[in-house]
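Quiz preparation item.
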């Protein structure tokens, strides 16, 4: 894959965001409605993997199985605490 060529020849662009680009008061209710309609698979948005599962996390991200894989390096860390 030649990223430079893909961007230039296919007229693509990269857009960066800082801390997201949403208005929670508008977007959260919209996401809830999308979820109710089966249009937003919330369970795919984030999944935690141990560091030993790094290859699985990468594969799941590439396949779309998981949108945001999170690697847990500290074995004593508990998500949500």
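Solution:
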């Amino acid at each position: 894959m030649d990223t430079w060529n893909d961007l230039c020849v296919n007229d693509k662009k990269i857009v960066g965001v800082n801390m997201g680009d949403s208005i929670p008061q508008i977007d959260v209710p919209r996401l809830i409605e999308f979820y109710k309609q089966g249009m937003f698979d919330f369970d795919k948005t984030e999944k935690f993997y141990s560091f030993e599962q790094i290859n699985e996390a990468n594969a799941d991200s590439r396949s779309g199985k998981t949108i945001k894989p999170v690697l847990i390096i500290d074995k004593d860390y508990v998500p949500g605490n």
